[in-house]
Design brief:
There is one protein chain. This protein has an 8-stranded antiparallel beta sheet, covered by helices on one side. The protein has a domain at about 25-80. It is of the alpha+beta class. Helix content is about 45%, strand content about 30%. It has helices at about 1-20, 30-40, 45-55, 60-80, 165-180; strands at about 85-90, 95-100, 105-110, 115-120, 125-130, 135-145, 145-155, 155-160.
């Protein structure tokens, strides 16, 4: 009887949370960090062994549950995920970069020449911008779920669809502007 009551109570809580937490997909930062760590443990055989061990010991299940119930809910209500903060070194084609995340944006610092770029997201205007050499410029603004407004020249903006066709259209506009400036 006690087990049956617990099962029904859990089902009711889960159904209630599905209704009250709609569109709270989130970034699953904890689970992604765990998976990312596992990819760099060793060769592919060691990674596979760690992967199975983490499934047998419910490490992945617990991290996913923590993301679903706690971290993604915090991200939904506050706009930032507490696990998203931190530093990471990325190896690019032309050197290494240190990426620092403070929950509101990113600082990208070249470890080759110590140059840096700041990427910021303004929640109110839904705009990503960058700052380099003391000058701030807008990268793009979300118009809705399927469109972004992007700069196409000096103080000119155009709206593009978030699709392959939209990316192609932006590439065409950018190439025309590049040829015109030569």
């Amino acid at each position: 009887m006690k087990k049956r009551f617990l099962t029904h109570a859990l089902a009711i809580v889960l159904c209630g949370s599905m209704i009250t937490m709609t569109s709270c997909i989130g970034s699953f930062s904890l689970t992604n960090r765990l998976l990312g760590w596992n990819q760099h443990v060793g060769n592919k055989f060691v990674n596979e062994l760690v992967f199975f061990a983490f499934w047998i010991l419910p490490v992945y299940e617990v991290s996913c549950l923590a993301d679903v119930l706690v971290l993604n809910s915090i991200e939904f209500w506050s706009g930032s995920n507490p696990m998203a903060k931190g530093d990471k070194i990325i190896e690019g084609n032309d050197g290494k970069y240190l990426v620092k995340c403070d929950g509101k944006g990113y600082d990208v610092i070249s470890l080759n020449d110590n140059s840096s770029v700041r990427l910021d997201f303004d929640q109110d205007s839904q705009t990503w911008s960058y700052t380099a050499n003391g000058e701030t410029r807008e990268l793009f603004t979300f118009v809705d779920d399927t469109h972004v407004k992007m700069p196409v020249g000096n103080d000119c903006y155009q709206t593009f669809e978030l699709s392959d066709a939209g990316v192609y259209a932006y590439q065409q506009v950018a190439m025309q502007g590049n040829f015109a400036s030569r």
